[in-house]
Amino acid sequence: MAALLEVKGLKAFYGKTQVLYDLGFDIAEGGITTLLGANGAGKTTTLRALCNMVRTEGTIRFAGEDLSGKPTEEIVRRRIAHVPEGRGTFTSLTVDENLRIAAYTRNDKAGVAAERERVFSYFPRLKERIQQQAGTLSGGEQQMLAIARALMLKPRLMLLDEPSFGLAPLIVVEIFRILKRINEEEQVSILLVEQNAALALDLADYAYVLETGNVVMSDKASVVKNDETIRKSYLGY
Amino acid sequence: MEQLLEQIASGLANGAIYACVALALVMIYVSTDHLNFAQGEMAMFSTYISWQLMNWGVNFWLAFILTIAISFVLGVIIEREILRPLHNAPVLSVVVVFIGLLAICNSMAGAVWSYLIKEYPSPFPKATFGVAGVIGPHQLGVVIVTLIVLTLLFLFFRYTPLGLAMRAAAQNPQMARLVGVRVDWMLALGWGLAAAVGSVAGMMVAHIVYLDPNMMSGILLYAFAGALIGGIGNPGGAVVGGLSSACSRTWSPTPAT
Questions:
Q1: Which stretches of chain A sit within 8 Å of chain B by CB?
Q2: What is the pTM of this model?
Q3: Which of A7, A90, B21, B187 is the most buried (most CB within 10 A)?
Q4: Among A208, A179, A221, residue whose Cα is nearest residue A81
């Protein structure tokens, strides 16, 4: 499989503090890749760097095109959907408005309408809550809305930052099942950042393990999962 | 009884104007967290532009529409050229720029059109309009025009994709970028709209207070009050606040100057 996203020598900074050091990784088209690592390893920063939301150096090639230096809103228009940490929804807008704004960059009305129906088929609960303010939804529903919002972009690549954060285990299982379906049915490639390594390794095909802004190892998810040394030293389970 | 009705009518007419200025303040506040102290003077300057157009022979309503368009463009330019470079500046720098803008608008209007008080026409027909003896034709006209403007704004923000994008950008700029909204342009558009709404207030009030470079200073104060009563971040509240600050002023036993 050809790499959809190629990252080389990625550095990121918060002010003067460097957080990522020469990070390099590839994401296969159509696959699910996960970034693992302890708190502070730079997982979230990597996702933010891909969308140019922090000061970044290095090359990021998406479908052959160099993205470095492009503003966030232009990167999004290349159909990279980012679901940020802590649920990316507009809390004072309604569910309906959240879905409408998500398709803001698209011009094909029929396509958007079809997308909406597909989104409801994954998350029927959102249809019931359509006129409700996003901020009044439960945590799980807000996470569903955030993923739905990302889908409305008809993304080629979806960046997910800790979709399990703060959710009840049953909801997490439901959301991860839907993510799997989305990956298969919509041909969306996924880059998943997770604290819950066991969960992420079950879903992903390929895994990178980060430590203080460096990739310390990478392999097929099934290999990482069964490697006790890695599990104990980096993933803490 | 008749006096009461008169007071209510004049309260509503003034309130409609305060509501417009309060709304302009709120529109900029929600997306930038700054209160534009120059909002009133920008509206005054716009009113002079409309006066100039009428002086050149343009009729009132054409001048009215042209002035709204010109004010919109000026508002966009002010944001992009003057405020954009201050994006990450501390709040006091921005406040100083607002005060500078206030002084510049005021002096420029004085320099171009002089400080002499000018009469400003009312576009509303005298004889057949209004409720005789109670609601003056101009008062009624002001209320109707501002209601139309406020309704259009409401429809724009509520139902158009651009209006939705502007709300999204104001609520959460970072998220808005993540759905592809060009947030910087939304700020500039917000400034343009605020300047346009302010210009409506200026053109409506100028017949009552006469045209001079200081005509908006008092009005801005009441608009501030209105915006604050309405909860500063709430456009609907700003309109209600503007109306109530005007009504409480005209209904109070000792009339202000």
A1: 51, 53, 71-73, 76-77, 81-82, 84, 88-93, 97, 100-102, 104-105, 149, 153
A2: 0.87
A3: B21
A4: A179
